[in-house]
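Task: sequence in, structure out. Protein: Putative NAD(P)H nitroreductase YodC.
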Amino acid sequence: MNTELKMTAEQVMEARHSVRKYDPNATIPQGELNEILRLAASAPSSWNLQHWRFLVVTDPAIKEKLLPIAYGQQQVVDAYATIIILGDLEANKSAYTIYDAALEKGYVTQEVRDTLIGQIEGAYKNNPEIARDEAIRNSSYAAMQLMLAAKAKGYDTCPMGGYNRDALIKELNIPSRYLPTLMLTIGTASVQAYPTTRFGLDELVITNSF
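Result:
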């Protein structure tokens, strides 16, 4: 763990900032990285389909190949890992695995299991937009949780939308089932994030109706 001090959830949220410059010599023990990913994977998801996958790139040679794909953003090379957040466009296919296991463990009844699977199959069949919408929405929950988990353990992150998606898919052989929704760097900052201004609640909150 990078820090001896435990932070509250509130402190973690306030301490997290997007870091773009990393110490290229700093590492993350595999056990800690796994724990960060485990915590990220505890995020909520529609129907508990867990629409995310984490493509973790730590190989220096592969990170160098990501550099032009990320339009020259050096952080993808210097950070300990560059994680590609993938959204599952066929998450409905996981329904039987998830709910059969839940039934076996006694978490749901046969009736509930059948009802939920029916809802999932119907939604994915009748709404052509739902697969992409749900893949992006739910994988984003996991991405945010990953960033908070990383900060809680003393590491820094940066979510990145600036990359060539088609080139990324080709370079990393990403199957068509998965949609890259975010590139995320994680490591130890060499330069702290610059301060940012934030809107106050008077700009952000609409009470009851416009």
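The longest strand covers residues 178-187.
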